[in-house]
Amino acid sequence: MMNIVLIGMPTAGKSTVGVILAKVKGYDFVDSDLVIQNQENRLLKDIIAQEGIDSFISIENRTNASLFVNHSIIATGGSVIYGDEAMAHLKDIGTVVYLKLSYETIQERLENAKQRGVVLRENQTLLQLYQERCPLYESYADVIIDAENLGIEELIEKILDQLPS
Ligand SMILES: Nc1ncnc2c1ncn2[C@@H]1O[C@H](COP(=O)(O)OP(=O)(O)O)[C@@H](O)[C@H]1O
Ligand SMILES: O=C(O)C1=C[C@@H](OP(=O)(O)O)[C@@H](O)[C@H](O)C1
Ligand SMILES: [Mg+2]
């Protein structure tokens, strides 16, 4: 299966860039977050509030591990990298592209991490979350894109340039 899977911190631009990339390449667009909301018939933030973080991660893992699509740009949620089965499956069905940004940029974009429904544990700071996740994103990535200081269109150009043809 030929897909492009976008991973990275929340607000890295996976959903925004993903849908435009799909138009440019003539692919379909799948946002894993919306698939989860659809299947659960609840908002992500309500799933996290009602079930807790571990349960959300396991729902996210299950949903992404059973995503059978082709010629699609898949925008994952930032916490997808905690799901082993999800990541094995996503790597199997596509090229995994990590949109990498500095902590400072993520912090600026994510003014209120909890309100957006980020999987941040009690007493865990955003910096700790960033440091915990970066090595995971890097280890799963087939392609790493430095997205720092790039507008949406510039980022799309860079992704297209760096994708294997
Ligand atoms: N390259 C960019 N430059 C500036 N702002 C961006 C860029 N990409 C996304 N954003 C903004 O960041 C926010 C989060 O983007 P989103 O696509 O939802 O990220 P993700 O899906 O990775 O969490 C949105 O308000 C979006 O407009
Ligand atoms: O990184 C995270 O902890 C999360 C990111 C969200 O998706 P985006 O990365 O699209 O914001 C969503 O999956 C959920 O609220 C948890
Ligand atoms: Mg998103």
From TrEMBL:
Keywords: Amino-acid biosynthesis, Aromatic amino acid biosynthesis, ATP-binding, Cytoplasm, Kinase, Magnesium, Metal-binding, Nucleotide-binding, Transferase. Belongs to the shikimate kinase family. Its EC number is 2.7.1.71. InterPro entries: P-loop_NTPase, Shikimate/glucono_kinase, Shikimate_kinase/TSH1. Catalyzes the specific phosphorylation of the 3-hydroxyl group of shikimic acid using ATP as a cosubstrate. GO terms for biological process: amino acid biosynthetic process; aromatic amino acid family biosynthetic process; chorismate biosynthetic process. It catalyses: shikimate + ATP = 3-phosphoshikimate + ADP + H(+). PANTHER family: SHIKIMATE KINASE, SHIKIMATE KINASE 1, CHLOROPLASTIC. Monomer. The keyword Cell membrane does not apply. It comes from the Bacteria. The keyword Transferase applies. Mg(2+) binds at S15. Its cofactor is Mg(2+). Binds 1 Mg(2+) ion per subunit. ATP binds at T11, A12, G13, K14, S15, T16, R116. GO terms for cellular component: cytosol. Substrate binds at D33, G78, R133. This is Shikimate kinase. Its main location: cytoplasm. GO terms for molecular function: ATP binding; magnesium ion binding; shikimate kinase activity. It is found in: Cytoplasm. It is an enzyme of class 2 (transferase). Gene3D superfamilies: P-loop containing nucleotide triphosphate hydrolases (3.40.50.300). Pathway: Metabolic intermediate biosynthesis; chorismate biosynthesis; chorismate from D-erythrose 4-phosphate and phosphoenolpyruvate: step 5/7.
